[in-house]
Automatic annotation (TrEMBL), chain A:
Belongs to the binding-protein-dependent transport system permease family. LivHM subfamily. The keyword S-adenosyl-L-methionine does not apply. The chain crosses the membrane at residues 12-37, 49-65, 71-92, 101-120, 147-166, 195-217, 229-256, 263-283. It is a multi-pass membrane protein. PANTHER family: ABC TRANSPORTER ATP-BINDING PROTEIN (PTHR11795:SF442), BRANCHED-CHAIN AMINO ACID TRANSPORT SYSTEM PERMEASE PROTEIN LIVH (PTHR11795). It comes from Reyranella aquatilis. Keywords: Amino-acid transport, Cell membrane, Membrane, Transmembrane, Transmembrane helix, Transport. It is found in: Cell membrane. This is Branched-chain amino acid ABC transporter permease.
Automatic annotation (TrEMBL), chain B:
The lineage of its organism: Bacteria, Pseudomonadati, Pseudomonadota, Alphaproteobacteria, Hyphomicrobiales. This is Branched-chain amino acid ABC transporter permease. Keywords: Cell membrane, Membrane, Transmembrane, Transmembrane helix. It comes from Reyranella aquatilis. It is found in: Cell membrane. The chain crosses the membrane at residues 6-26, 33-66, 78-99, 106-126, 153-173, 203-222, 242-263, 275-295. It is a multi-pass membrane protein. InterPro entries: ABC_transp_permease (IPR001851), LivM-like (IPR043428).
Length: 293, 309
């Protein structure tokens, strides 16, 4: 057996895998936040609640209708995404002309309502979701549970697909143009309000998809998104919301840093991301991938 | 102007006789939150900076107070000073970093720092972790002159602290410093071009607001004799935003009204458990969509329209 700085390799790689998984969630959630902010100018505080709704949707689909995990992976984000579209149509669209602050407060209030209702109905202790692909591989230096490996790969694919959709397709080009100058894009005959609604639905769906992926790893509980969304805010501050690829790289990178901290100095693992945020603010206030605005 | 004076006189008389009609501990708690909300509003209403992490000053000051008075066995005055000073120092460090970004990023950064402080408090030995600091002794103030074992006596002490904080905020807002702050809020580039260093004014406002939030938090620990994680949690940061918003941002008395409304509501709805959060969230939504000026702001508007007729 070899050892690295006195750390057994199983522990090191185990924590790195955990960090990678957390990073996958940070990346997916900060990506959604960035896409929504770009179009709506709203920081979606409800993101954590919608992530939780995704996990709950999968759990309820399984429990009540016996829908398997793989179907939930598609159905749950659609359900939650549609819920997001309703929210946008009913509430969010009324505040676009106001200061950013009001969007933040409105979505914060919505998150309280949603999380409170789920907690009231199902309590705050979690419910387990069965692992859809049990088992794993022995890689020699560590044991890799198949599902966890799948989550990292799936998140990577989802993130890259979102990047491709926004940066390389025609619809994405419309989106970027509408972010830049909505009035002009409207003059070309493109329905910008509908584009905004769809963007919100997409961002919310992404959060829900992350929630479904998280369900077999974490307990499905009403408060699973509360602390996560706060960490994701720090991730967004570190990366800056200007670049899609930036969100992905920052998300995964910070997950790894968190994992490493857990190996070398466990008490700081909860706070390390915030420390990184403070350092980034000192050195490059606009964020690693952000433009100064 | 005269109506305002009469209004203040009525409020002060009400505050003086209030313990005859209401439970003093409840009143003291409401006063602490009222001061906290005023401190928050100094920042958002007058400097245009929305801190979503003010609980870190409020809650940490409570821990500082408890530690100084219980573990070090010093006088309560020293505890209050430690609370104010500690919160101001924390405000200086976090504020200096947070003002490097603007707008909504500022809110996210303060929120993130508050979360960091929260995690620190969960682990740090002197906060008592999940249990919090319990049984902080209530000692007599001014070297034994004012006994504080009796809730009714302590109420007047808390009222005096509140009035001191309120008067300080009133002074700040109506001083040249306050005018510059408002100028920066309305148009930062313009204020900068007139020679005011916006960042220094913003930082000073942030530190003052943190210090006053600390005064409120330390006073709360003195009254309730404990300091817990709830006071540093993100939910408390949200609560103070709600209080200021319900009462009316940018009005000096609004946060006081908002704090009393929210604390009363929590008191009467405590039996519903988690549902309080749902109601608070719903209030957020309704206020943002329909009553952005808050109770006091809407009332002032109505009064103005009436006068104009």
């Amino acid at each position: 057996m070899f050892e690295l700085l006195g750390i057994p390799p199983q522990a090191l790689f185990g924590q790195l895998l955990l960090g990678l998984i957390n990073g996958a969630f940070y990346a997916m959630l900060s990506l959604g936040l960035a896409v929504i902010f770009g179009m709506l100018n709203v920081i979606n505080f409800t993101h954590g609640a919608q992530y939780m709704m995704g996990a709950f949707a999968a759990w309820l689909l399984l429990g009540i209708l016996d829908v398997p995990f793989w179907a939930s992976l598609v159905i749950a984000p659609i359900i939650v995404g549609l819920f997001g579209i309703v929210l946008e149509k009913l509430l969010l669209k009324r505040i676009y002309h106001l200061d950013h602050l009001y969007g933040f407060l409105l979505t914060f209030g919505l998150a309280l309502v949603i999380e409170g209702l789920f907690q009231w109905k199902w309590g705050s202790s979690g419910a387990p979701y069965p692992n859809p692909i049990p088992g794993g591989f022995n890689l020699g230096f560590m044991f890799l549970p198949t599902y966890r490996g799948f989550v990292v790969l799936a998140a990577l694919v989802i993130c890259l697909a979102t990047w491709y959709g926004i940066e390389r397709t025609k619809l994405g080009a419309y989106l970027r143009a509408a972010t830049e100058n909505p009035t002009l894009v409207r003059a070309f005959g493109i329905n910008v309000p509908r584009l905004i609604t769809l963007t919100y639905g997409l961002g919310v769906g992404l959060a829900a998809l992350a929630g479904v992926l998280a369900a077999p790893i974490q307990q499905v509980s009403a408060l699973m998104g509360v602390n996560l969304v706060l960490v994701v805010f720090a991730v967004v501050v570190i990366g800056g919301m200007g670049s899609i690829m930036g969100s992905i790289v920052t998300g995964f990178g910070l997950g790894l840093i968190e994992g490493l901290t857990k190996v070398f100095y466990p008490p700081a693992s909860n706070t390390v991301i915030f420390v990184v945020m403070a350092l980034v603010l000192l050195i490059k206030p606009a964020g690693l991938f952000g433009q100064t605005k | 102007m005269n109506a305002t004076r009469i209004g203040y006189a009525v409020l002060i008389v009400l505050a003086l006789v209030a313990p005859l009609f209401a439970y003093p501990v409840f009143l003291m708690k409401a006063l602490c939150f009222a001061l906290f909300a005023c401190a928050f509003n100094l920042l958002l209403g007058y400097a245009g900076l929305m801190s979503f992490g003010h609980a870190m000053f409020f809650g940490m000051a409570g821990y500082f107070y408890g530690h100084v008075v219980k573990a070090w066995d010093l006088a309560p005055e020293a505890g209050l000073l430690a609370g104010v000073g500690g919160a101001a120092l924390l405000g200086l460090v976090t504020g200096a970093l947070a003002i490097r970004r603007q707008g909504i990023y500022f809110a996210m950064i303060t929120l993130a720092f508050a979360q960091m402080v929260f995690f620190f408090c969960v682990q740090a030995p002197f906060t008592g972790g999940e249990d919090g600091l319990q049984g902080i002794p209530r000692k007599a103030l001014l070297g034994g002159l004012i006994p504080t074992k009796d809730d009714r006596v302590l109420y007047y002490v808390v009222l005096a602290i509140f009035l001191f904080g309120y008067a300080a905020i009133y002074r700040f807002i109506h001083s040249p410093f306050g005018q510059v702050l408002k100028a920066i809020r309305d148009n930062e580039q313009r204020a900068q071009s007139l020679g005011y260093e916006a960042d220094r004014y913003k930082l000073l406002a942030f530190v003052l607001s943190a210090a006053l939030a600390g005064l409120a938090g330390a006073t709360k620990a003195m009254v309730q004799q404990f300091a817990t994680l709830t006071d540093v949690a993100a939910s408390t940061s949200g609560e103070v935003v709600l209080m200021a918003l319900v009462g009316g941002l940018g009005t000096i008395i609004g946060p006081v009204v908002g704090a009393f409304i929210i604390v009363t509501m929590q008191n009467y709805l405590a039996f519903t458990g988690e549902f309080v959060l749902v109601i608070q969230g719903a209030i957020f939504v309704v206020i943002v969509l329909a009553f952005r000026k808050g109770v006091v702001g809407e009332f002032a508007e109505w009064w103005k329209r009436r006068q104009a007729r």
